[in-house]
Design brief:
This protein is α/β, with parallel strands linked by helices. It has helices at 20-26, 40-49, 63-73, 97-102, 109-119, and strands at residues 9-14, 30-37, 54-57, 78-81, 123-126.
Amino acid sequence: MGNTNKKILKAVSLFSSSGIGEAFLSSLNIDVVVANELLEDRAKLYAGLYKETKMIVGDINDKGIFDKIVKSSGKINLLIATPPCQGVSVAGKNRTLNEMLKDERNHLIFRIFDFINIKKPEYVLIENVPNFLKLE
């Protein structure tokens, strides 16, 4: 067998929070090169846990933040995106499809699609709740 310490996939993590998912991914030789989180406290925790990952703090809808994520990531194989689920969760305030469509958090998927179209990763992992699939 080859070198088991070698990182085999380069990834970007969007909506990273404090990086709980990355703890598992690193054991699979996935190197998250860039992460993005909206909330500064979560981003600081992430940066403290994953010192080799470039953390970009800010709103992905901001063109400057989005462009910085794209430019900083280089060639990647994997995109990990865990957009907020509160807007489509049955436990949330939005109970009808119409209410869900009006919730701005549910439109963040379009930034994920923009990123995919620009970077063209081989693999994409998007995590959310089942109601997310009902949005058209």
